[in-house]
Amino acid sequence: MSTFVLVHGACQGEWVWEKVKPELEALGHKVATLDLPGSGQDMTPPQQVTLDLYVEKVSDLIKQQNEKVILVGHSMGGLVITQTAEKVHDKIDKLVYLCAFLPKNGESLISKSEGEKGPEFELNEADMTLGPKLETVEETFFNAVEDEALKLASMKRCRPQALAPFTQPVIITEEKFGSVDRIYIETTLDNAIPISFQRRMNTETPCSKVITMEADHAPFLSKPEELVNHLNQVSKS
């Protein structure tokens, strides 16, 4: 059995894994999650939040585990696990990009997204945060979630996202980041990171395996059982 560390994306928190974590644990895996600084229930002021701070928190969680981990990053979490792999590559068995950003050296989320379709964000200059336009949240992030109560609850739990992690480039090397096995789980119904963009990223930075789900940008809500099955299979490969 494996140890999973699950990293959420922008505007969300560890709550996104509530349907996935217990099912993986029921299969015998160990699962660790966290709220990134300034996300979920973490009250770090957004002005203090950086990609480096994200990486520090995730690295600390990984170091607490007794074995190498399978590090999963959703959406913006792809940048976090990429930079984390550069820092603690010897503690990571596999990287799993779940409809996530997969940057090359020197790229930030904003530079990687240039010219691509994606969420419409509004900037709050006073606290240096970005938030998706409320009228677009459902169709952008949760368009295939059939449970209306779950969808509404999830929309209400989203928070504005600190801006700095969007602008900071990753600095990675083939010797460290490049030494870790990479798997990409792509989602064909995704309106936040369209499938064409996902496929461009996992082609530019090749992965040992690409798994395709007919899901939206929230497969942990719309297709949790299928996602758990894929992660379980990843642990056996």
From TrEMBL:
The keyword Hydrolase applies. The keyword Hydrolase applies. One of its GO terms (biological process) is salicylic acid metabolic process. Keywords: Hydrolase. It comes from the Bacteria. InterPro entries: AB_hydrolase_1, AB_hydrolase_fold, MES/HNL. One of its GO terms (molecular function) is methyl indole-3-acetate esterase activity. This is Alpha/beta hydrolase. Residues 4-228 form the AB hydrolase-1 domain. Transmembrane segments: none annotated.
